[in-house]
Amino acid sequence: MLPIREDGLSVKKFTLFAGLAKAYGAEAEIYSINLVNSKKLAALDMPNTRALLRKLNDQLAHYTKLARFMGLSLHIKHAVTRNEVDQVLHHLAHHDFQLMVIGGRRLSMLSRLFKKRPIERLFHDTPINMLAFYGRDNG
User: Which residue from 54, 64, 124 is spatially nearest to 88, judged by alpha carbons?
Assistant: First the structure.
């Protein structure tokens, strides 16, 4: 499983994820999480939700095509939530996955002191193997 925030999937992260799935002959899932506040979550109606999912699917269509070209079984699932970590943990609890690849960001020393780090909570609370991917900037 590869959780992403909205359509935030890099080619490098997808390449690693797809390569691992292909090497082990596993099915792959991209779990697209769209963060909203409580007010927006309560106001979601069917037409707006469909439009949002259509937009996200259009943005992720490139990866679906790549997976098909690679002969990889890829599924895309979406969630609209207030808390991405809780949503990922809930999804993992209700499905049978062996590996989760997550993307991380390097934090400055100052932000490490004052910010919660969701990646640490995921590593601590996730009942499956995890791989954190930190892409390098080319600049």
Answer: 124
